[in-house]
Amino acid sequence: MSNAQVVPRRNPIPAEPRIPARAVKLGPVSVGHPDRSAPTLVSKVGLSEMCLSYRTQSGERLLALDHINLQVRAGEFVCIVGPSGCGKSTLLHLIAGLQAQTSGQVLVDGHPVQGLGTDRILIFQEHGLFPWLTVGENVEFGMKMKGVPKAERQEKMRHYLRLVHLAKFEKSYIHQLSGGMKQRVAIARALATEPDVLLMDEPFAALDAQTRDLLHDELERIWSETGRTIIFVTHNVREAVRLGDRVVLLTFRPGRVKSEFPVNLPRPRSLEDPEVALAAREVLDELRDEINRSLEAEYNEGVKPHIEPGNQA
Amino acid sequence: MKRAARYVIFYAALLGLWALLAELKIWPPYLFPTPWGVAEALYAGFQDHTYWIAIRVSLQRVLIGYGISVVLGMILGLGVASNKFLEETMGGLLVSLQSLPSICWWPLALLWFGLNQNAILFVVIMGSLLSVTLAMEDGRKQMPKIFGQAGRNLGAKGFKLFWYVLLPASLPFIVSGLKQGWAFAWRSLITAEMLYLSLGLGQVLMMGRDLNDMSAVIAVMLLIIAIGFVVDGVVFKGMERHLQNRWGLAPAN
Lengths: 313, 253
Hints:
Shape of chain B: globular
Number of strands of chain B: 0
Distance between the termini of chain A: 22 Å
Order of helices and strands of chain B: HHHHHHHHHH
Radius of gyration of chain B: 22 Å
CATH topology of the largest domain in chain A: Rossmann fold
Shape of chain A: globular
Largest interface: A-B, 26 and 23 residues
CATH class of the largest domain in chain A: Alpha Beta
CATH architecture of the largest domain in chain A: 3-Layer(aba) Sandwich
CATH topology of chain B: MetI-like fold
CATH class of chain B: Mainly Alpha
Number of domains of chain B: 1
Strand content of chain A: 15-25%
Largest sheet of chain A: 6 strands, mixed
CATH architecture of chain B: Orthogonal Bundle
Number of strands of chain A: 10
Strand content of chain B: under 5%
Structural class of chain A: alpha/beta
Strand order of the largest sheet of chain A: 6-7-8-3-9-10
Number of helices of chain A: 8
Oligomer: heterodimer
């Protein structure tokens, strides 16, 4: 009837074989980074057997994420791609602790974390900036919640605004900025909270192509200057290959890790690089099956049962 | 400038009509006072400090009563909006209570609090609490979910989350409810003051009635209107303008 996997309530974990993830080559990476030149034993972020199931309106239990295992090294830039409805945004919400997984663990530096923590900051597609605050106050917000003294807060705020080239807009309000500027403020606000990990949920999906290209360059630069670990979710394979050290492909409902592609291309990269296009083709070939499955499900069901982060049974 | 001219012409015409009707002496002056009679009453009232005291007392009461309503209403509204059980049970009750004029609480208030200021405050609170509660509930629901998520993600929780995120985020959606709550509070206060010797504007108005001094009655009515108008025009219009500037919303017509 439906392509979605319905699991008996008694036994929420299906006993079917999982597709083995492609072996990850942790070879030398192109951009010199103190953290990344020596492979660490404990990964910065680890996802171990993460599952999420929730109850649909008809009372069925639907498995959204199925035993996700993922290790992310300190300073690594990992992109997660998958068809719409595979639960990739939800996965970020789970890592951020905005939503609770059904089973499994999130580990930061090898220690399991529970719930929210400012060591993991999420950047939303619709930026989520606060319109009642100025740009500067937005960037200061996380530090203010932590109780950082005002002088220190402002100094850091200015530092991060300079980093995203928005120093002049400290006193502006959010609605006065363009879409690309808003995302840069969101990046500055996230960085100012000094998280271990930046979680980015399709942050550039709503921007025009030129702005997106610029922000790719800027994000790559900020990442190499700050050495943050980034987990970046997108449906755009080209974008994933252009940005990531590694691309992780999720399957369509339930979301599983289908394969991982290390991207060993020299940086800085560009969306137009033939090597980027070639690598993207490789990922896309594997993604195509999943997209077809997602389209099939959409046609069969009429309405796509959208898995929205936050709507969990 | 043109708008100002229109205002002046309209109000001058209104005043002229009033003066004309009064001068024609169709009704005796104690039934239909003249504009200058009212002006004299206003002058006298301010001169002997009666009106100053009345305004101060009334404003003090409405500020306390309305202030309590806003605080309680926000807590209640937030509770109802975020708790399914409360929403299903209290939600309907709040809406039906809203149809009850707050002065209906007066007899109970007298019994519970006695003949004093607290009884008046109670009526004022009952008048405005529901508006604020319903507005807050609605605002919390209309507020985009992303603000709460972003706030929590950045480390805000508990009271800080409410104060720095949920409250400012819902303000554009509750400002009209706050305004309505203010109007109800002001009306409830004057009504309650008219029923009981209390120094406020309501009592001064009743004093005019008792002395058969209709000029004084109209003078106090004008004061009540003027205060309502000023609060609306200064406090709430200012708040709306402030929100429009910050959020970049189109100005409301």
